[in-house]
Amino acid sequence: MRLRPPARLVLVLVGVASLMTPAYATAAREYRVLQLNLCHGGLNTACFRGAATIREALQVITAKRPDVVSLNEICREDVPELAAAMGGGFGTFAPARRPDGTPSRCTNGDEYGNGLIFRSSVAGEVSSAVYAAQDGGPERRVYVCVEYPDLIGCATHLSTKGGVAKAQCAAAIGLLRGRAAAGKQTVLAGDFNLRYASTVGPDVQDCNAPPFYRKGDGSVQHVFAANVGYVRTETTWLKYTDHPALLVVLNRR
């Protein structure tokens, strides 16, 4: 016959188990950040593949089930099309700028730049701006952010000139660092045109600062995050653009 432990012992064991289990463990939830540089503006003919790029992006978004997608080298009208794979979530777009301040254009005439799409349909507060540091080329680089009461997410695409990209990266981290230091859950994703542990130019880690940490694709795409846990990183080869899809899985409170 199997003996049951005394009721008092059961209560003691339960109490010990509760002390050993972190209070946040059951409250944390997975939050999936997908970074895509789609080369869809037509400006770079070496990687431009037209409508096939958007079809492939729709497939990877459907497969990876992100909570937020950060987009580079897209046209404005790509955002609502890609949002369909997110259940019609909230999306926004910020054009890169020409030296005269007017929006950069895709070869089809649409505005060209960066986008963010959230699975949530709730609209956040949108902000965007041109970086102070620029390389003198035809495209002035920008960032775009969406802020919610409990989260701020940003997308960016930096200069191909290493020193300028490093300055832009530091500016983006500096823009967000105060709110991150105050405890705001923060995510910054994009094509930084900087590598980790680089031997031929500035290191992307040089622009990092607490409380942020960084995860990347082994090349120039990165996700910086603060006040969220880290689970894993996945990269997926894409046929119709010159960058892989970078998925960084986080844990949010």
Automatic annotation (TrEMBL):
InterPro entries: Endo/exonu/phosph_ase_sf, Endo/exonuclease/phosphatase. GO terms for molecular function: catalytic activity. The keyword Cytoplasm does not apply. Residues 1-27 form the signal peptide. Keywords: Signal. It holds the Pfam family Exo_endo_phos. Residues 51-208 form the Endonuclease/exonuclease/phosphatase domain. This is Endonuclease/exonuclease/phosphatase domain-containing protein. It comes from Sphaerisporangium rubeum.
